[in-house]
């Protein structure tokens, strides 16, 4: 890390922090939850910088390593092309799949070994995003990473605003779930697809809430919703396989909760579930081209290929297996609890291999203990009484579907720690919301006993 990199990084840190301070002072100074605005952005910036340091010194041994440096290298290559051949660089932005433009951008790469990053639609979009931000950041890695963190934070903050709309009483606990989970702000802040997707998920949740539940059909909401959906579909389309059904269920459940008649609410429940399933199947079918190898018909081959790759690339790493024989519906249902368990509660401490793995194991242990405490207080199956709020149901549906999918196909704890971050805020927030519901219902009983 040379003096130029440090200087530019500090300058951009000061610029971003000043902008954030002004926004917080103008818009959230009188809002109680606004106290988390600057700390939330702060941990995102820390995560973005830490990711680069870990990949450079821990994984790379003092040399650029990993996807984050490959995306950055390709982005800088585009900036170099813009300086040398502006027409070629602009053509690459407008038509990134043209091999002639790709080869010219590759030739400008400042690091060796980046050609593999020009693989497909998602990678090419990442190069375009990174290239624009690297141009703004004067080709500084850490300044570019800080800009990534800031853009991702805007969506994460929108997600937090959505959560506290429904549960303002636990704004502090929800801040922990959304901003301060270590694995989420580490893997979801730097120059990676995960940062963009996490921010887009936040904006998509926020705009769906405003458009479909509160009928705020403004042009800005619709544009942000469309852009967020498009970014997720291109970068990590498989996320939509879990998110779209959960969104549909949330919207329908919310409208159902507004029906005053208890009889009508009960009578309409089977129709609501059937409609949710039908809409989900319809949307997932239309998303099959988007999710590609992660579509339902390709699930087995994708899982097998991912398992083989992790065993070849890291034979001594933290590889796990699941007890399943085939990919029939019966086998998938049978293995679902184990897949969800591995996503949110593993690796266990004795399965950790290395410093980063131990930190992930401690995080998983904390989530496991919180989950077990809630199950104990609710007497296991009684927990369903505390999940009747439509927003809690939305979080649980998304977290369970996504947790099952990534747990089933990752086969490596290191990769899983990164893949699962899209659902971690929703899962942990759901636990805190359930805890709030339990506390709220048990307090009157305890007060009555005291009196």
Please explain how this structure is put together.
With 451 residues, this protein is mainly alpha-helical. The chain folds into 2 domains: 1-236, no CATH class; 262-440, no CATH class. It has 20 helices and no strands. The N and C termini lie far apart (66 Å). Mean pLDDT is 83; it is low at 446-451.
Give the class from helix and strand content and strand pairing: mainly alpha
Q: In percent, how helical is the residue content?
A: over 70%
Low-confidence stretches: 446-451
Per DSSP E runs of 2 or more residues, the count of β-strands stands at 0
Give the number of domains.
2
Span of the ends, CA to CA: 66 Å
**C-alpha-based Rg, rounded:** 23 Å
Number of helices: 20
Q: Characterize the main sheet.
A: none
| Residue share in β-strands | under 5%
What is the typical, i.e. mean, pLDDT?
83
Order of helices and strands: HHHHHHHHHHHHHHHHHHHH
Gross morphology is globular
Topology:
Elements lengths: L2 H25 L9 H23 L6 H19 L1 H9 L4 H9 L13 H16 L4 H26 L4 H9 L2 H6 L5 H21 L5 H18 L2 H19 L4 H25 L1 H4 L7 H15 L15 H17 L9 H24 L11 H21 L2 H7 L4 H27 L1
Task: Describe this protein with a few key phrases.
single chain; mainly alpha; 2 domains; disordered C terminus
Sum this structure up briefly.
The protein is mainly alpha-helical and 451 residues long. 75% of the residues lie in helices and 0% in strands.
